Amino acid sequence: MGNSLHNKIYLGRRSVALLQNRRVQAWLCLGAFASIGLVWLAIRSFK
To answer: Which residues contact 47 (CB under 8 A, 6 or more apart)?
Structure first.
């Protein structure tokens, strides 16, 4: 019974709790800045 309503609610609650974790937020922010920087460098290298 892996597709029960209880499992869906639990998984939804867990994913929200994961995004409220400060360490996860810091890694997401760092990854976003790193990817923006890489895209900027790639654009500059083609000009």
So the answer is: none
